[in-house]
Amino acid sequence: MKATAIAPANIAFIKYWGKADTKLRLPVNSSVSMNLGSCTTTTTVEFRQELKKDEISCLKEDFSFKEKQRIRTHLDLIRCKAGLMCFASVLTTNNFPGSSGVASSASGFAALSVAAVSALNLKLSEKELTVLARLGSGSACRSIPDGFVEWVKGDGSGSSYAYSLYPPGYWDLCDLLVIVDSRTKKVSTTKGMETVRTSPLLNKRLLAIPDRMKRLKDAMAKKDLRSLGEVIEEDCLDMHAVMQSQTPPLYYRNETTKRIMEAVVGWRNEGIPVYFTIDAGPNVHLIFEGKDKDRILHALNKIKGVENIILNIPASGARLINEDLF
Ligand code: DP6
Fold it and tell me: Which segments of the chain have a pLDDT < 50?
């Protein structure tokens, strides 16, 4: 009745922004991401007959009431699948600083799903696990499979799933997470997406996605960093254009974010192949090949306002481990 799982966070190359079905967390478009080796969540779940309620805690930070409620709802779903009415103890920890601005919901709900399913001895395929993790947090489905992952938008719960496009060792890509503001983001992704339809740019984005997905997959097949990077930046800027044109507008970037984005263009002009992407926060992810790591770290040293950096390489997806947290 006890199991522990570890799961990576992921960075989207083509982003998920907007839901076609809020309750089922069906996305308005398909997305593609890379698992982040240095940003993981480990979670132990134990179902115990004597518990009167779920006991949920995080080792280094406190969960808010809302966060605990979201975890309970997810546990209810898994209990329902197993036909069992029994509460659980859940203990979780992130290996990246909770204040790093990295969304822990992807790694968190992926680890929780894998651990709880195993603790209840439910036999789910990888595809079914991705569907389950998606119901906790959309991007969590992309943290289940290995390496580079596509989340197919689908048209119902069973057909909105994620699968591995390539294993982690396929391409020596790096993601350097540059933390410029470690505070929690102002508007959560779930909340921000609620008003996505107020953006006049959403339809244009959705029309552009199929061709963008094709270009991204072609670039990955050829390991063509330049084409990949162009698509990554195009989609990031497109998502932020949608965010900024929503009512009320969502501005996630700050002055340091913009300074780094401009510097990246300059570094490319100097011959360093590096590209940026940004999620729902001010921190910047730099995408490049391992061979250019030292040059990029050196160039980044000159930028003011950087609080911290985390270097990630492509990683395996969520998996069970033997070391329980309690
Ligand atoms: C901007 O998966 O956090 O990071 O489904 O409401 O939990 P919920 O949203 P979430 O959204 C992630 C949005 C993003 C882009 C991405 O990762 O694709």
Answer: none
> pLDDT digit string (tens) for 32-67?
999 999 999 999 999 999 999 999 999 988 888 999
Contact between 143 and 7 under an 8 Å Cβ cutoff? The reply is yes
CA 273 – ligand 1 centroid, Å: 27
What is the whole-number distance in angstroms between the Cα of residue 8 and the centre of ligand 1? 14
Say which DSSP state 61 is in: S
Determine the 3-state secondary structure of 58 from DSSP.
strand
From the CA of 269, how far away is ligand 1's center (Å)?
32
End-to-end CA distance of the chain: 13
CB of 189 sitting under 6 A from ligand 1? yes
Conformational region of residue 83, where left means phi above 0, alpha means psi within -120 to 50, and beta covers everything else:
left
| 107 to 50, 226, 278: CA distances (angstroms) | 29, 28, 18
Q: Is 279 in the pocket of ligand 1 (CB under 6 A)?
A: yes
State how far Cα 20 lies from the chain centre: 19
User: Residue 8: CB within 6 Å of ligand 1?
Assistant: no
Q: Does the pTM of the predicted model rise above 0.85? A: yes
